[in-house]
Design brief:
This protein is an alpha+beta fold and about 325 residues long. The protein has 18 helices and 7 strands. Strands 3-4-7-5-6 form a 5-stranded mixed sheet. It has a two-stranded antiparallel ribbon with strand order 1-2. Strand 3 and strand 4 form a beta hairpin. The two termini are about 25 Å apart.
Length: about 325
């Protein structure tokens, strides 16, 4: 799981304000708005990419990422935003944002580097994600930089702008929106994604600093971050093993435990600690496989049901509607 559901939901709402159909985007994500708004909701990069690509298509906005980042409410960042607003200085807030980046997006790590009279906020995307959808990557990076600048203005209550912004993609024919938002030197075709700020503008107090509340929020974030890392590691291993076994019928918990050289009871206990039952895990995997199969137009609904080991198409349709709120046919018709 790579992205925070609440962040994606905010992107959907922004797209809806620009004319996109929110229900189409929700159906594409496979989640309801209520589920996405939960702090614990995480979604895969594949789902995120699909939704962002569709949002760009529906709005027709070539600067969708920039405009979304500029307009998003600071609550879109959830716990990270709360930590930033209670930090002692902007520098400390940025350091926490980098440290807890996995709470929002695990495939776009952030770092803060001090230079000669400057600080550089640098984004280092995972290559595998970039290769999946360069469009989603570019608009997300644009949005994160624009959102970071907006948050910077909110924390300081000053309209300071960067000294320079570096972007790795080709210079667009029109850069007016980049110039309007960042108001600084822009360097395209760069080897990095970065925003350079003046040191004196970063080492300033946060006007809403609250040390006692900050300690509580950071402790909570540390706990959440550790849970995510642990959950992603073990659950991802189980899913990978399920796929590796390569049988149409997913193995029983006894067979899976034997494959992992453990007991069913131990497997069940470890999954329970991470908020899963074995049935929930296999159900989630079936959903992910169903979404992938439905992207292949040559497969009929009945064939997808067979591949997922359903007794008949109607049983599969009932499960899919429970997962997404729509039928497989409706979902497929809404694909770009």
């Amino acid at each position: 799981m790579a992205f925070n559901g609440r962040f994606l939901l905010n992107m959907m709402h922004f797209a809806a304000r620009q004319g996109a159909d929110l229900q189409v985007l929700l159906a594409l994500s496979g989640y309801s708005a209520e589920v996405l708004s939960q702090e614990s909701c995480k979604i895969t990069d594949r789902v995120y990419n699909q939704v962002i690509e569709q949002a760009i298509s529906l709005t027709g906005d070539p600067f969708f990422g920039l405009h979304a980042g500029e307009s998003l409410n600071l609550t879109a960042a959830g716990l990270i935003s709360q930590i930033s607003q209670t930090s002692e200085t902007v520098k400390q807030a940025l350091e926490y944002c980098c440290h807890f980046a996995n709470l929002g997006c695990s495939v776009l790590p952030m770092s803060l580097k001090q230079g000669n009279g400057t600080y550089k906020i640098q984004l280092s995307p995972y290559k595998a994600w970039v290769d999946q959808s360069y469009t989603a990557f570019r608009h997300t990076a644009d949005g994160v930089l624009a959102f970071s600048l907006r948050a910077f203005h909110s924390l300081t209550q000053e309209q300071h702008f960067p000294l320079a912004v570096y972007l790795p993609w080709q210079r667009p024919a029109e850069i007016d929106e980049y110039e309007r938002i960042f108001r600084c030197a822009l360097y395209f075709d760069s080897e990095e994604i970065a925003m350079v700020m003046q040191k004196s503008h970063v080492e300033v107090p946060v006007v809403t600093a609250n040390f006692d509340l900050l300690r509580i929020l950071v402790a909570h974030a540390e706990e959440k971050s550790a849970q995510i890392q642990h959950k992603q590691g073990y659950v991802a291993r189980i899913k990978e093993s399920l796929l590796h076994i390569g049988q149409k019928r997913l193995p029983t918990i006894e067979a899976m435990a034997a494959h992992l050289h453990t007991s069913p009871r131990t497997l069940q206990r470890r999954l329970h600690v991470q908020g899963y039952t074995y049935k929930q895990l296999t159900d989630e995997l079936r959903k992910e496989m169903a979404l992938s199969y439905l992207e292949r137009p040559h497969l009929s609904i009945a064939e997808v049901a067979y591949l997922l080991d359903y007794a008949d198409a109607s049983a599969f349709i009932r499960s899919f509607k429970r997962w997404t709120g729509v039928t497989p046919k409706t979902y497929r018709n809404q694909l770009p």
